[in-house]
Design brief:
By secondary structure, this protein is mainly α. The chain has one domain. The chain is globular. It is 76% helix and 0% strand.
Length: 425
């Protein structure tokens, strides 16, 4: 890094953080419907960030791009199905705690991705960026919840225009369009097991994602419009990079460092890009943390302009706890892939236990959480804590246990009520 670029990089990151704070407090009015819709798009883009490393490790081609688009859609499908077939029983404390762990896991993965990306572009210490983004996002979300995350996310959606233009400029000016369909380089295909595993993980994570649920209840998660914009953003960015990299994109790899390593050749570009990336990853983390807070402070009524009688004072505390855990785990150097596996196991426990017909889902969630811990321990012991066939099998087993215990608990409660009625008569 040139000495002259140090100031520019510092100013870029600082500007990004200031933009995040200003965006969160830019208005005293509640977020409008378009703002909430753009926020839902950023919430869905979370799963592109989570899934893309699975495809780029062995080299992403246009086929991998199509698979990535399908995987991202599965998050929305999982969220809507979870809402449609959820049990009518009131959410119990056990469910909230487990779903909070799911949100914490998502925040951790996003912090790791944000730290690595900003370190790649600005050559800064990723640990510092993880800490800074987590603190700023947690403070804003603890203060305003979904209101803050919605405003930040809405702005981030507009700012995504810059990465799109950069990717397309690289592709058309320094690459070739035909190579997207016919790569000029050889590539090892991504294992089918890894693709299926990330698809299953994203599906259940989407079903347990509290922020997606909130946007769905508010009517902001309109499938056609949200999917079209989200897939459009992914498509434009990845196609531009595929043209530039000869039809195959490897990450991490030495060639992927070419652009960041020379980005300060254009004065001001590094600072602008760092500012935008700081805003985007702050929005992604804020969305995950807002989902944690919404478990104790449902803000759907407030955002819809109705009476907000369910507000509690517990949400900021749990947001802070979730952010602190996410920072510690991210700084410990735990890989994103094991975190995705463990988080998806907890997510499927909450989703399966709340399928319609389970009148006492709390027991199912507890049983599923215990089964998730046991499954994770077994996967660690067998060195299989990665996305693959073993993680898929573990997910299915945890789902069956959570659903079975939830159903049996509801049957027991029904029999108890029937016996009391019979005794009273």
């Amino acid at each position: 890094m040139n000495r002259e670029s140090i100031l520019e990089i510092c100013l870029g990151i600082t500007a990004g953080l200031l933009i995040v704070v200003i965006a969160a407090f830019r208005s005293s009015k509640l977020p409008s419907k378009p703002v909430l819709r753009r926020s839902a798009m950023i919430a869905l883009l979370t799963y592109a960030v989570i899934a893309v490393p699975v495809f780029t490790i062995n080299g992403m081609t246009v086929v991998g791009l199509i698979a990535l688009l399908v995987v991202v859609v599965l998050a929305l499908v999982g969220s809507r199905l979870a809402g449609s077939y959820a049990s009518s029983a009131q959410e119990e404390p056990a469910t909230r705690y487990v779903r909070a762990l799911v949100g914490t896991g998502l925040a951790t993965v996003l912090l790791i991705a944000g730290g690595q990306t900003l370190a790649l572009v600005g050559r800064v210490d990723p640990r510092i960026m993880i800490l800074v983004i987590a603190v700023v996002a947690a403070v804003l979300v603890a203060g305003q919840g979904l209101v803050a995350s919605s405003r930040i996310s809405s702005l981030s959606m507009w700012l995504l225009v810059v990465p799109i233009l950069i990717a397309l400029a690289l592709g058309f000016m320094l690459g070739s369009a035909p190579v997207v369909i016919s790569p000029i380089r050889l590539v090892d295909s991504t294992p089918i097991a890894a693709i299926l595993a990330i698809a299953v993980a994203v599906f259940v994570l989407g079903g347990a994602d509290r922020s997606l649920e909130a946007f769905n209840k508010l009517g902001a998660l309109t499938p056609v419009r949200v999917i079209a914009w989200v897939l459009g953003v992914i498509l434009l960015v990845v196609v531009g990079l595929l043209m530039f990299f000869g039809g195959v994109m490897f990450a991490p790899s030495m060639e992927f460092f070419v652009v960041p390593a020379n980005i300060d050749a254009l004065p001001g570009l590094a600072g602008i890009l760092l500012a935008i990336l700081t805003v985007i990853f702050s929005a992604l983390v804020a969305n995950a943390l807002a989902g944690i807070g919404a478990l104790w402070n449902p803000q759907e009524a407030q955002l819809a302009g109705e009476d907000d009688s369910q507000t509690t004072t517990s949400a900021p505390r749990f947001v802070a706890i979730g952010a602190a855990i996410a920072v510690v785990v991210a700084l410990l150097g735990v890989g994103s892939e094991p975190l995705i596996v463990v988080t998806s196991l907890l997510a499927v426990a909450t989703v399966a236990a709340h399928i319609d017909g389970t009148a006492s889902p709390g027991r199912g969630v507890i049983a599923g959480a215990i089964a998730s811990a046991v499954a994770a321990a077994i996967l660690i012991a067998t060195q299989q804590l990665v996305l693959g066939w073993a993680s898929i099998v573990a997910t299915v087993i945890v789902a069956l246990i959570a659903f079975g215990v939830g159903r049996s608990a509801s049957s027991e409660s029904s029999q108890g009520v029937a016996s009391k009625v019979h005794t009273g008569s």
